[in-house]
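In the current project phase, the collection of sequences with tokenised folds has grown. One resulting record follows, to show the layout:
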Amino acid sequence: MHQTIIHKTKPLPMLGWGLCIVIATGCQHQPPAERPAVTLPVYSQGDADNGKKQYEEACLKCHKLQPGNNEKGPQLMRIYGAKSALLTDYQYTDALKNSNMTWTAENLDKYIAHPKQTIAGTRMRSDPIADAKVRQDIIAYISTLR
């Protein structure tokens, strides 16, 4: 004779609700963070075509150009004219968060030339682009990324 034992357990309603909340919020795909549209005119004091080449050689390994594609540095789409440290999906340094910098041509030029002197505490590489013409070209290219 077999005897079947049935264990009755009480459901854990709070655990069930908590699991539902986690599934409903944590598993949804969050769209990548983006900056607002660029409103400044294109920077015309540089050659954007050469700037693209220079950007690809000097900047692209750390700064991609697709929203959500942050690597060593944040992606730079729509950076021109934007406030610093806007992307919510990139972990900026406190120094950059607190800088309250707007990425104008003048500020980009200073930052690309001397990142650590412009914003002490930045993670930006320490081998700056010394050639002013190359910086102007890169800024011209960046200003077209809309």
